[in-house]
Design brief:
Structural class: alpha+beta
Protein name: FixH family protein
Strand content: 15-25%
Number of strands: 8
Pfam families: YtkA
Keywords: Signal
Organism: Spartinivicinus marinus
CATH superfamily of the largest domain: Immunoglobulins
Strand order of the largest sheet: 1-2-3-6-5
CATH class of the largest domain: Mainly Beta
Helix content: 40-55%
Distance between the termini: 72 Å
Order of helices and strands: HHHEEEEEEEE
């Protein structure tokens, strides 16, 4: 074999060994780094991202507000220009309006960029905080994903239609008379009048509106279930796990529970409430019930420094 070819093969083998060694070294460094980043570090980074997200959101609102003000000025200048008879002044106002209109586009783009940054920072910050929360509360958490409905083979009827409303003007009980029409059914009308946004955040781990609290909510698991799920048309219990932004339990809060179904003119069929604090930061909610499938919003109002902060959960059954 040619000596030059042998030398090239030898050099290639050496390079391959070096690359493998370097890859193993990088993997070891990354593994060691992940060990060094503890829960406290993750929480600190998450908090910084979430606060930066709020700042970006406020900046975006100010920028968009300024863009709207400039647009009004543009409209005013153009309206004035149309009323003038002096062509020179008309030309000057038109040029000024065009220059301002260009500024509107720039301000709008800047506002959109800030809003996107805010969304990205918030999303990643919440992911990190969720990770830290799960690590710290892992012994208590039974549900890791979204809240789901217990599968059922029973026909689903919306609005409890076989039970007459308390109001005399509302429809009476459904009658069994009548013939079925091919291709048509009223068996599951519950999603009508609902326009579910996409994507809809249905995570069971959420930050409060004013970012004072972090929380996880889940139905209390039945002994026959592998994971907590929601029964339809049955009163059941939930657990609310409440922490501050350091994932530390928040105790002694008088929490109010609210719920409604967007697109429908009704709330929950019951009046659920927090009955006790099972352990620090873990609250028992009794009286939960869903009478129809679809998109529900469950909110928890939590007292905070003389005011109220709210945590909202989207539940799609």
């Amino acid at each position: 074999m040619d000596k030059k070819i042998i030398k090239k093969i030898s050099n290639f083998n050496k390079l391959a060994v070096l690359l493998v060694s370097y890859s193993l070294f990088c993997f070891a460094v990354e593994s060691k780094a992940s060990e060094l980043i503890n829960n406290s570090d993750i929480i600190k980074i998450a908090n910084e991202l979430i606060l930066d997200a709020r700042k970006q959101e406020m900046a975006s609102m100010e920028i968009i507000s300024r863009a709207n003000q400039i647009r009004k000025e543009v409209n005013s200048l153009r309206a004035t220009a149309r009323t003038l008879t002096d062509k020179s002044l008309t030309q000057q106002l038109t040029v000024a309006a065009d220059l301002l209109a260009e500024q509107v586009t720039l301000w709008q783009q800047q506002g959109a960029d800030n809003r996107q940054k805010s969304s990205d920072y918030f999303s990643y910050g919440r992911q990190l905080l969720t990770k830290a929360f799960k690590e710290q509360w892992q012994a208590k958490i039974k549900l890791d994903g979204e809240i789901a409905l217990i599968p059922s083979t029973q026909p689903l009827i919306a609005h409890n239609t076989q039970i007459r409303s308390v109001h005399p003007n509302m429809p009476k009980a459904m009658q069994d008379t009548g013939s079925a029409v091919s291709g048509m059914t009223l068996s599951v009308p519950s999603l009508s009048a609902q326009s579910i946004p996409s994507p809809l955040d249905t995570a069971s781990f959420q930050l409060s509106r004013d970012i004072n609290f972090f929380s996880h909510v889940e139905p209390i698991v039945d002994v026959s279930q592998q994971q907590p799920m929601v029964p339809l048309n049955q009163i059941h219990q939930w657990r609310l796990m409440l922490s501050d932004l350091a994932a530390q339990p928040v105790s002694g809060k008088a929490i109010n529970v609210r719920g409604h179904m967007p697109g429908h003119v009704h709330g929950l069929p019951t009046q659920p409430r927090v009955t006790k604090e099972i352990e620090p930061g873990v609250y028992l909610i009794e009286g939960m019930k869903f009478q129809m499938i679809g998109w529900w919003v469950i909110e928890f109002d939590i007292p905070y420094h003389g005011g109220v902060d709210t945590i909202k959960f989207n539940v799609v059954l």
